[in-house]
Amino acid sequence: MSRRQRRSIDIFNLSFLDVVSCGFGAIILLLVIVKISEPRVIEQLAVDLTGLVQRLQAELYRLQGEAVAVNQDLRSGEEQLSEKRQNLTRLRSDLSYVRGQFTAGKRELDAQLRIEVQLETARQSLSEELRQLLGDNYRRSDNVIGGIPVDSDYIIFIIDTSGSMQKGAWPRVKQKLREVLAVYPQVKGIQVMNDMGDYLFSQYKGRWIKDTPARRKAILKRLSSWQPFSNSSPVEGIEAAIKRFYAKDKRISLYVFGDDFARGSIQQVVTTVDRLNRADASGQRRVRIHALGFPVLFSHGGIPVNSVRFAALMRKLAEDNNGSFVGLGK
């Protein structure tokens, strides 16, 4: 049996070359396509990068501007802080000075108070020794001036500020107040109220005005323009003065200035004052009540009934309350 002859294989045949040619053709086509589109991509990329750079530069400028503003604010804040620190240092220095002044003033006040207490104790001791030497019935000859006792350490003026007094007697009111003050060269306290209980100096409401020459001048000056409401009845002022200022350790005199008593009962006023200004076991009242009657209504002719009522009321109050009544002439 004849052996079959084996076919020889040729790797470079036509089919293989076709395949290889197609592959190279495809590669060349791809290269051509890429070369054509590459400039467009690069151009677009360049455009995009240029816009990004511009945006980044704009953002950089904005941030630089904000940094400048922040630095300015920071410098301003530092300047304000430095100024406030200087002010604080100055205030601390002022506070230290005021504290020093307060401490020195307090020491001086304490010293004055101790001296006053010592003087008062010495005065009381001297008064007791004089009483023992001279007897209980001894009275100083200068305790009465013009019929009015002037032995008080505190005086209160209760002045009728009605229209008739303002128009017809005010210069004389100031004159008589000055004269009464002159009778007391030095007292421990002064107060001025009207017949309704209103104070001449509201800042001294309920407190004594310390007696000094300057205070006396201020009282007379303020009196010139003082025009509070008045009902021409002294009972409210007397009641307010006794209730607020009476104290067991104080000798007080009230001076009532007025011209008429237009309304109310004389007996009712006397009873009210008697209840407020009650007497102790020795018959001494809490305060003395003096009165000055101004003849304002007499200038109208005849005998004015309200002026007569005022004179009768104040004469009775002065008699019952260890005081004096003085009716002034025209």
TrEMBL record:
Coiled-coil features, chain-numbered ranges: 53-94
Matching InterPro entries: vWFA_dom_sf
Keyword tags: Coiled coil, Membrane, Transmembrane, Transmembrane helix
Transmembrane segment boundaries: 12-34
Protein name per its UniProtKB record: Secreted protein, containing von Willebrand factor (VWF) type A domain
Organism: hydrothermal vent metagenome
Lineage summary: unclassified sequences, metagenomes, ecological metagenomes
